[in-house]
């Protein structure tokens, strides 16, 4: 599979492989760390020929920043199985949005994930499928996974799937879903894995966007003790998908999986992964964390990866920790929203189970608050496990900022991502586009240098890619996040700077919720704002304007919640809906969402410049409506009022 053939997919498999998941045989000096977080993979030497002493974190970081080709070239050459060697390591220019790595090279991702390990150790465990019911786990060897992948790849070919075709995978977390991903990679098809909680309408939209040729699904899925009718959802979705030619249905079994009719230095350095460890990332494979740290990262490293099909509270709040005890998990990687949820149930559910196998805990998906960090570290980790709060994005492909790797004995500060990974060169920018220097400063977080794992384009729309990531700050990649840099040079992520909200680890554009609500015949206008939530991290707050003949407002709000759940997903349903007479708009007709955000987060006394408002009196109007809203909630359900800051 040619490197260039993967350019159509934003979450490119090759990017993931090159950037995070396949760099075994680390040909660089070992990093000294008390938790071995930067140790060289097994079977490789401790130092290169030109150095007699271990290099420090700062030395390697400087080399990666100043000489990216010299740093990454030997890693890719010695760590991956290439069909055709590359001729150029690095050709990138942020001013034009050009991202080029390992030009001319050809490899197959599935070969790097499977074949090379089958040749060495075919009966090693690749996957532990932690099924919905606890205690019914299934272990899959690398040999079995390769055989299933090849059978599915041949089936796809028999149904006319060719190199470059797009395949939608709408399946619950399972070995068959992983095999489907690898089968696509094996024949050069591009997979789009769609979260199995999406509605038929959302599924259809994603299928049409990618112009998929085939959908692979199960008849049913299981989650939290409930049956999910996946095939029925697919059947409804494909009615509106003209490019779909086949729906292939895989079969679940209670034993080994079979077909029916149808990163990484990062992982090793950040999580202290060692041979024989069980890596437990509990993310769904429909999200980038699942792609990178459930599938491609662990498998390229020959690791054992846990596939978690259930929920953190099924059948009870001890599910994660019972699983850790039973499977002897060594690294646990999850989302702060789940940790905040479990924290409410108390310590007893954690202490009930043996967690002595754990060495590293990881947080992903959103900034973790201090209370959740302390509980995860002190209670779950018994104050002995390394806890890494990781920052990265779908677009970067893998972890960019994390406490490890680091110098030996370096501190870890609660709730802070802290240190850039090798090749990551962050800068902070002010509102005028100037670089903010020094410590104890804040700004827009940008990256000044490309690295191998990052996306190279947006499918069929490269100009959109340039406009979204390189236009705001020319010459830099704009992450869309804000950050604070301490006097010590550590980075604290402060949150999104645009209209994307993060609900329980799910990134979602507020416009998508607005569109769903605006389709109601009684709702001509709506504005959705994200606000801090004690459990979810962020929640959606909807301001809506009703038509005069809208009827019973409570009925309308109930219908709106149902519409959002149907059109998007249940997690996207706004926690709060406030009816207003009108929205605050500029003279050009744009809704001033920042004013709404400040009102619902207790910052109404600091609204900033309001001179562009069409009618400034609307502020008092909305404040009055909001005050009545929170007074009513305080009387009914005070614990859910949005927190003041």
UniProtKB/TrEMBL annotation:
Protein name: Propionate--CoA ligase
Gene Ontology cellular-component annotations: mitochondrion
Domain AMP-binding enzyme C-terminal: 512-590
Gene for this chain: ACSS1
Naturally occurring in which organism (per UniProt): Phyllostomus discolor (pale spear-nosed bat)
EC number: 6.2.1.1, 6.2.1.17
Alphabetized InterPro entries for the sequence: ACAS_N, AMP-bd_C, AMP-bd_C_sf, AMP-dep_synth/lig_dom, ANL_N_sf
Source domain of life: Eukaryota
One record GO biological process: acetyl-CoA biosynthetic process
Family of the protein in this entry: Belongs to the ATP-dependent AMP-binding enzyme family.
Residues annotated as domain AMP-dependent synthetase/ligase: 115-250, 269-456
Alphabetic keyword roster: ATP-binding, Ligase, Nucleotide-binding
Class of the enzyme per the UniProt entry, highest EC level: ligase
Pfam families membership: ACAS_N (PF16177), AMP-binding (PF00501), AMP-binding_C (PF13193)
Any one Gene Ontology molecular-function term assigned to this protein's record: acetate-CoA ligase activity
Reactions mediated catalytically: acetate + ATP + CoA = acetyl-CoA + AMP + diphosphate; propanoate + ATP + CoA = propanoyl-CoA + AMP + diphosphate
Residue span, Acetyl-coenzyme A synthetase N-terminal domain: 57-113
């Amino acid at each position: 599979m040619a490197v260039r053939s993967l350019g159509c997919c934003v979450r490119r498999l090759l990017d993931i492989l090159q950037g995070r998941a396949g760099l075994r045989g680390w040909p660089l000096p070992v990093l000294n760390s008390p938790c071995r977080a930067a140790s060289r993979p097994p079977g490789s030497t401790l130092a290169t020929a030109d150095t007699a002493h271990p290099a420090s974190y700062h030395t390697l970081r400087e080399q990666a920043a100043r000489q990216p080709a010299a740093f990454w070239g030997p890693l890719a050459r010695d760590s991956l199985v290439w069909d055709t060697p590359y001729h150029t390591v690095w050709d990138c220019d942020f001013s034009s949005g050009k991202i080029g790595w390992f030009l001319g090279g050809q490899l197959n991702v599935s070969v790097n994930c499977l074949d090379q390990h089958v040749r060495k150790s075919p009966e090693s465990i690749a996957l532990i499928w932690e099924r919905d019911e606890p205690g019914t786990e299934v272990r899959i060897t690398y040999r079995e996974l390769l055989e299933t992948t090849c059978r599915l790849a041949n089936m796809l070919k028999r149904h006319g799937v060719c190199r470059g075709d797009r395949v939608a995978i709408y399946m619950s977390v399972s070995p068959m879903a992983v095999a489907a991903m690898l089968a696509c990679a094996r024949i050069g098809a591009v997979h789009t894995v769609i979260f199995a909680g999406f509605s038929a309408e959302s599924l259809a939209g994603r299928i049409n966007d990618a112009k998929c040729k085939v959908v692979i699904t199960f008849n049913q899925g299981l989650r939290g003790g409930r049956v999910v009718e996946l095939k029925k959802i697919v059947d409804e979705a494909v009615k509106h998908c003209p490019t779909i030619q086949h729906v292939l249905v895989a079969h679940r079994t209670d034993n080994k999986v079979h077909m029916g009719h149808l990163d990484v230095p990062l992982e090793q350095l950040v999580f202290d992964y060692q041979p024989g460890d069980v890596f437990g990332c509990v993310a769904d494979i429909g999200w980038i964390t699942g792609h990178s740290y459930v599938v491609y990262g662990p498998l390229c490293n020959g690791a054992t990866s846990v596939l978690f099909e259930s929920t953190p509270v099924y059948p009870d709040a001890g599910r994660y920790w019972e699983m850790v005890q039973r499977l002897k998990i060594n690294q646990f990687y999850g989302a702060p929203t789940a940790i905040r949820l479990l924290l409410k149930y108390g310590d007893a559910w954690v202490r009930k189970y043996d967690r002595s196998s754990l060495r590293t805990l990881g947080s992903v998906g959103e900034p973790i608050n201090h209370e959740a960090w302390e509980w995860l570290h002190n209670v779950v980790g018994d104050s002995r496990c390394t806890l890494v709060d990781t920052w990265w994005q779908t677009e970067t492909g893998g972890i960019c900022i994390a406490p490890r790797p680091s110098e030996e004995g370096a501190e870890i500060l609660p709730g802070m991502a802290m240190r850039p990974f090798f090749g990551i060169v962050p800068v902070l920018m002010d509102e005028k586009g100037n670089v903010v220097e020094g410590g104890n400063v804040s700004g827009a977080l940008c990256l000044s240098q490309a690295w191998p794992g990052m996306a190279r384009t947006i499918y069929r729309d490269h100009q959109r890619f340039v406009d979204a990531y390189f236009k705001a700050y020319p010459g830099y990649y704009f992450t869309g996040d804000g950050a604070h840099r301490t006097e010590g040079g550590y980075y604290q992520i402060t949150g999104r700077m645009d209209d994307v909200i993060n609900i329980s680890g799910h990134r979602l554009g507020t416009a998508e919720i607005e569109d769903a609500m605006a389709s109601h015949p009684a709702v001509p206008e709506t504005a959705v704002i994200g606000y801090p939530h004690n459990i979810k991290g962020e929640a959606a707050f909807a301001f809506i304007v009703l038509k005069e003949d809208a009827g019973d407002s409570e009925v309308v709000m109930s219908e709106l919640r149902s519409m959002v759940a149907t059109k998007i997903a249940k997690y996207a349903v706004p926690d709060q809906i406030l009816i207003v007479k009108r929205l605050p708009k500029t003279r050009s007709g744009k809704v001033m969402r920042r004013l709404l955000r400040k009102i619902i987060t207790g910052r109404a006394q600091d609204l900033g410049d309001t001179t562009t408002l069409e009618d400034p009196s609307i502020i008092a109007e909305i404040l009055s409506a909001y005050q009545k809203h929170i007074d009513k909630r305080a009387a009914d359900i005070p614990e859910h009022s949005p927190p003041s800051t």
